[in-house]
Amino acid sequence: MTIKIGLLGFGTVASGIPFLLKENSEKITAAAKSDFEIAKILVKDDEEKNRLLAAGNDYNFITNIDDIVNDTDIQIVVELMGRIEPAKTFITKALEAGKHVVSANKDLIATHGKEIIALAQEKGVAFYYEAAVAGGIPILRTLANSLTSDKVTRILGVLNGTSNFMMTKMVDEGWTYEAALKTAQELGYAESDPTNDVEGIDAAYKAVILSQFGFGMTIDFDDVSHQGISTITPDDVAVAQELGYVIKLVGDVRETESGISAQVSPTFLPKEHPLSSVNGVMNAVFVESIGIGESMYYGPGAGQKPTATSVVADIVRIGRRLTDANVGKAFNEYNRPAKLADPADVKSGYYFSLNVPDKKGQILRLAQIFNGEDISFSQVLQQRGDGQKAHIVIVTHALSLTQLSNVTAKLNAESDFTLINSFKVLGD
Ligand code: NDP
Ligand code: HSE
């Protein structure tokens, strides 16, 4: 049988789908026990349609979503437009019309996934989104299927290809922030609004989805604290190197005694930690669990072909289930009530970078402030001052988010101290 697909959008990822369907057709047909045909592609307007046709794209481009929704021959709708609207409306229409849907839209799934998944279940259709987390790494299906027997306790991940690519270029090759971002955009890694990449928002969306698959808990996007790479200074990078760390934007989802905690933040990773060598557009998801122990899933987190590969895997899975007449199973069946962790239970080492007056007694003042919150130092580094101010770096042993918030307030209350940055440190 030939299964007809309606594509929504024909940008970076979507335009990689025909390549795989053609170049890997034998294996895909064998796996799905069906062929696939891209029957219609929704583009924004006639101008875009004419531009694509003139460029030699021989497809049936349409500009009205109803031409796909009302086409009873189309069984699978693949949404690759991004953003919330009109993607949400179009996916809802497709599901209501009984079509199976594949998407890579983490923004939408992290913020409105609950209602979309419920609608898909109600209609008995599939809604799959493997590409939404870590692009080419098949992490969602791995968590949902291969790790069902294991209990996941923590997921750490380099989850944004754009920011990791930028950090690698800036730190290892001395590129400027602007040049690194421009190249990430040209290579098709960045979101249409790259603020989502560099401010940790894209990784926070992925953390929401990972909490569902890893921990069975659907948390809200607002429950994920997030900070991006834009605040990292060259000094932070240099000090990290001097102390034996690498700074990366890391997503951290873990279950404590009181509940789940999800954060995205620049993080000091010990050089020997496997995540510290994940460079460029590569992503990695490091899973801690009671059975396997530690496992890491590594691969390109963005880019046309890697992402399209994950999208096509979802299409093939739906095709096979259609052939076997057992379509409609939820992508992730692990569900428990969501419980957020008490901040007092969420603990890590922290790095503090501060400017203090360049005169005696400052380390004592700092020791009193940290001691007042029962926080102990792991490393202290003072750089030679300029007579006015001196730069001090403190790495602490594990402290809780409550202690972090208290000590930060106390440091900020000292008018002659400047707290430049504080980042999580793994392993202290
Ligand atoms: P692009 O911006 O390259 O492509 C999206 C396309 O959809 C654009 O051509 C856009 O047109 C078009 N579009 C937007 N609105 C409409 C509309 N109303 N009707 C028809 N077409 C529309 O994005 P990507 O291909 O990079 O990303 C697609 C999805 O995949 C996003 O959800 C993204 O987050 C996700 N993703 C992307 C990855 C990547 O590496 N790029 C990796 C993993 C996931 P226009 O440009 O004119 O707005
Ligand atoms: N913009 C995203 C990234 C795409 O750079 O990781 C993959 O989700």
Q: Any chance you could write out the topology, listing elements then pairs?
A:
Layout: E1 2-8, H1 17-23, H2 25-32, E2 35-42, H3 46-54, E3 61-62, H4 66-69, E4 74-79, H5 87-96, E5 100-103, H6 106-123, E6 127-128, H7 139-146, E7 152-158, H8 161-173, H9 177-186, H10 195-198, H11 201-215, E8 224-226, H12 234-243, E9 245-255, E10 260-270, E11 282-289, E12 293-300, H13 304-323, E13 347-357, H14 362-372, E14 377-382, E15 389-396, E16 399-400, H15 401-413, E17 418-425
Parallel strand pairs: 1-2, 1-4, 2-3, 4-5, 5-6, 8-10, 10-17
Antiparallel strand pairs: 7-9, 7-11, 9-10, 11-12, 13-15, 13-16, 13-17, 14-15
Helix pairs in contact: 1-13, 2-13, 5-6, 6-11, 8-9
This protein binds NADPH dihydro-nicotinamide-adenine-dinucleotide phosphate and L-homoserine (HSE).
> Any idea of the CATH class of the largest domain?
Alpha Beta
Estimate the global geometry from the Cα principal axes: elongated
Whole-number tally of structural domains: 3
Number of strand elements = 17
Structural class: alpha/beta
Task: Tell me the Rg in angstroms.
Answer: 24 Å
Annotation keywords:
single chain, 428 residues, alpha/beta, Rossmann fold, Dihydrodipicolinate Reductase, domain 2, Alpha-Beta Plaits, 3 domains, 15 helices, 26% strand, binds L-homoserine, Homoserine dehydrogenase, amino-acid biosynthesis, EC 1.1.1.3, oxidoreductase, ACT-like_dom_sf
